[in-house]
Amino acid sequence: MVPIPSFEAGGDGMFQRSVVASWFAMWDLAKPVIAQVHGNCLAGGSELASACDLVYVAADAKIGYPPVRKMGLPDTQIFPWVCGMRGAMELMLTGDSMSGVEAARLGWANRSFPREELEDEVMKIASRVARIPTDLLQFNKRSVHRAMEVMGMRTAIRYGTDLQALSFHTETSKDAMQSFTKRGSGYEKGGVAKAFRERDAGFEKSKL
User: Any bridge partners for residue 62, and if so which?
Assistant: First the structure.
């Protein structure tokens, strides 16, 4: 059994609910959390970064959720909230990834910077945030979160765990999971990498 990030009641979707609970544990911290993203930020990595309050990316970063092509949905249905309906729909229907520039344009990230400038620029922004006293800063952060929650964000992300769990019951997802998790005499070294290549065949030329 896969370890779960935090305790949740058993049953279908337990793992997904535990992931969302951990995601909101970051969301509910009093202190702001800043993500500095470079390289590949895919699948669970994109979900983890999405839980942060501020997200800054290298222009050549690669962000997305390719498992929608074969395995299933994200545990956290964040894309519609930060990328809008059209941007989220393209990400979910193609499994294509965004560059850092595109991620900032669509709203997944605050800004993108050239890779060699990213750390310095993020530290500058973090220093500005840190100038605000923490007793007030926590309310500044929560005021934005409360507005999103009034619009239904927390509820929608929680509801998404049921859809994610259901997607794992499709024949496509079950076949994909078998190809990723084979063991014993049928397991080949490099089999997971092969499964990823097969999944992404034909999708090489992303337009995002």
Answer: 40, 99
Give per-residue burial for 30-53: e unless 16+ CB within 10 Å, then b. eebebbbbbeebbbebbbbbbbbb
Q: Which residue has the higher pLDDT, 68 or 185?
A: 68
How much is the pTM?
A: 0.88
Residues 6+ apart with CB under 8 A from 191: 179, 182
The DSSP element (H or E) to which 68 belongs, if any, is none
pLDDT in tens, 182-204: 644 445 566 677 777 878 888 87
List phi, psi (to 5°) of 107.
105, 0
Beta-carbon contacts of residue 126 (< 8 Å; ≥ 6 apart): 34
* Range 141-148 average pLDDT: 97
Burial (CB count within 10 angstroms: exposed 0-12, middle 13-18, buried 19+), residue 85:
exposed
- Residues in Cβ contact with 141 at an 8 Å cutoff, skipping those fewer than 6 apart: 30, 32, 53
Which runs of consecutive H residues, i.e. helices, occur in the chain? 14-27, 44-50, 79-94, 100-106, 115-130, 134-150, 153-167, 171-181, 191-200
Contact criterion met (CB below 8 Å) for 104 and 111: yes
From residue 114, give the alpha-carbon distance in Å to each of 18, 37, 59, 94: 35, 11, 5, 26
